[in-house]
Amino acid sequence: MIYREAGDFSTTYQQDSQTFPIRFDRYRYYAILAVAFLLVPFFINDYWANAILLPFLIYAIAAIGLNILVGYCGQVSLGTGGFMAVGAYACYKLMTSFPDVNIFFHVILAGFVTAGVGVIFGLPSLRIKGFYLAVATLAAQFFLVWMFNKFGWFYNYSASGQINAPERSVFGIVVTGPNTHAWATYLFCLVFCVGAALIARNLTRGTMGRTWMAIRDMDIAAEIIGVNPLKAKMTAFAVSSFFVGVAGALFFSVYLGAVEVTEAFGIQKSFIVLFMIIIGGMGSIFGSFAGAAFIVLLPVFLKNVLVGGFGWATDVAAHLELMILGGLIITFLILEPHGLAAFWKTIKEKLRLWPFPH
Amino acid sequence: MSEMAAEQITADGRRIGPVVMEMKNITLRFGGVVAIQDISFDIREGEIRAIIGPNGAGKSSMLNVISGFYVPSEGEVWYKGARRPAMKPYMVARQGIARTFQNIALFEGMSVLDNVMTGRLTRMNSSMWSQALWKGRAEAEEVANREIAEKVIDFLEIQHIRKTPVARLPYGLKKRVELARALAAEPTILLLDEPMAGMNVEEKEDMSRFILDVNDEFGTTIALIEHDMGVVMDLSDRVVVMDYGKKIGDGTPDEVRNNQAVIDAYLGVAHD
Question: What is the rounded CA–CA span in Å between residue A350 and residue B127?
């Protein structure tokens, strides 16, 4: 009743393979887009933007990127933080070297730079798999962070070793630097996030996605039916790193504004994004969003409840937050090992029949 | 080359075309173990060719050589009148050779439809940019190939499980889906590695019917390995018999059945 698909028929293959084949899903998706683009910008304030919405959107892009590599192509990566740093530093160098070019293109170019770096560090995946590949990408993480600290060229020899985003605008509206408005940064990130989700969905529902999933599920069989493993894995690394790089560029330029690489893009970033896709659901675009929301929102929620609701001291709450978060993640993974996306799917199957399950 | 062009007509009136693949003195060694020893045989267009033999005779190794998974230590593989150089398995697949596996090798995380569509991957070459936007070539290609995949799904009668994840299917259906994936590639030669292993009589009958239908309707050349003698003798036009890596017999089912070496290999022979 709530969730109706009776009378909803696909008459062409195009209709059958669209992103939301069920009309109800489609309308909900349009509604969410409308709220996100038309309503939220009018009510957003600095707290909401900086504590919740910006990190959510940016982490969602990174999670989509990592999900393509790990969830769809089955290549484990622990180098996400390093690749985000590549995006950030590429964006910084582009912003300072070509100040006249629109920041929008810089972010996209930073994604392409990261894609190239990702392909180079993805080359070992041709010979090694699983945990061993994870270790190889871990090496990428440490190497990249070391490199951005070591060579002054990357941070324009600034005394602090930090990179600072100069003020840049899109259509005359400032989106980076200290004088931004919450709604402008939010919309800027939202555009990238929606674009990333659409592209990722299109790639994964077609030829490329099937190639990746074939490699993930059984690489020998994939090769026997004509998949070139080199091409499949390298495209996965490239596309994945592209999104991760875009996320890194936004994280630096729009969200933080000033970045010290070890602090902002350390190994912890790699783990956080990996947790997001594990909790959200491997091999699911929706899962990337759900996981990002879970990891970003839960600490904020807990803090509000513990400090705001119970009136506890901030330091006690901060420690408890970590414990509760860890406990919840473990509980959740035991109850639903395939993540929030699988949980959502179960709910949908139940809702299809509700209230007459027989 | 007069022999190659010759068209044979079998006892039951089936037309068998010229030689499409020829194995010339194939030897395959793994270190000191000789899996295949100096075997030659050919596969003709449109026929059903069986490779039989006791366990460990080297049948699967032979199939792996044909599908490019192993490179023979000695000998040559001739395909469509030209010597096939050593190449990666995915290149062999692109030349029109598809196969199924003894232990089902489906993509468990994907739906039946997606699995069958992977069989079309070699025919799909729209650019990544077009796919990213789901416009133009990518969409047209998806629909065109979906039509072919759906035809195969219809043919093998698996429409009802189209959207089911493969991991949920029973064994018999998985075997059929694997055949569908191989067929979707519209191969010149279809290699079947024990298509009826582990099936009950009814499932075996179904599978036999599908194999015959495929051969009949699409004219696909089929090379298969099978243990069930009754099935092999009924289905195939010609049979190669292997034992301990050597060829001990080659010919029509009747010829093979009466071949003394074959009888000895299967029933054993007294050593005195």
Answer: 39
Q: Is B103 on the interface with A (CB under 8 A)?
A: no
B89 contacts in chain A (CB < 8 Å): 223-224
Angle between helix axes A285-303 and A54-66 (nearest 10 degrees) is 140
Q: How far is B40 from chain A (nearest CA, A)?
A: 24
User: Residue B217, CB half-sphere, CA atoms under 13 Å: how many?
Assistant: 12
Q: Shortest Cα distance from B215 to chain A (angstroms)?
A: 20
Residue A228 C-alpha, separation from nearest chain B C-alpha, in angstroms: 6
Q: Please give chain B's pLDDT, 272 residues, in tens.
A: 344 445 666 656 666 788 999 999 999 999 889 999 999 999 999 999 999 988 888 899 999 999 988 999 999 999 998 999 988 999 999 999 999 998 889 999 899 999 999 999 988 888 888 888 888 888 889 899 999 999 999 999 999 998 899 999 999 899 999 999 999 999 999 999 999 888 889 989 999 999 999 999 888 999 999 888 888 888 999 999 998 889 998 999 988 888 888 888 887 776 66
CA distance B149 to A244: 35
B11 and B62: one domain? yes
Place of tokens 């947790």: A275
B79/B112 same-domain check: no
Domain hosting residue B77, numbered range = 1-96+187-196+220-272
CATH code of residue B73: 3.40.50.300
| Pair (B151, B83) in one structural domain | no
Interface predicted TM-score of the whole assembly (ipTM), two decimals: 0.88
Can you give the pTM of this predicted structure?
Answer: 0.90
Angle between helix A339-353 and helix A285-303 axes, rounded to 10 deg = 100
CB contact under 8 A, A224 and B69: yes
Using a CB-CB cut-off of 8 Å, the residues of chain B touching A208 are: 128, 131
Beta-bridge mates of residue B243 = B246
Does B175 share its domain with B237? Answer: no
- Distance from the B158 Cα atom to the nearest Cα atom in chain A, whole angstroms: 17
> Are A13 and B101 inside 8 Å of each other by CB?
no
Q: Alpha helix (H) ranges present in chain B?
A: 2-5, 59-66, 89-94, 112-118, 128-133, 137-155, 171-184, 201-217, 229-235, 253-257, 260-267
Closest-CA residue in chain A for B126?
Answer: A207
* B185 → closest Cβ in A12, A217, A225: A225
If one counts the domains in chain B, the total is 2
With respect to residue B1, please indicate whether it lies within any of the assigned structural domains. Answer: yes
Say whether B181 and A202 touch across the interface (CB within 8 A): no
| Facing residue for B90 by CB, picked from A13, A213, A228 | A228
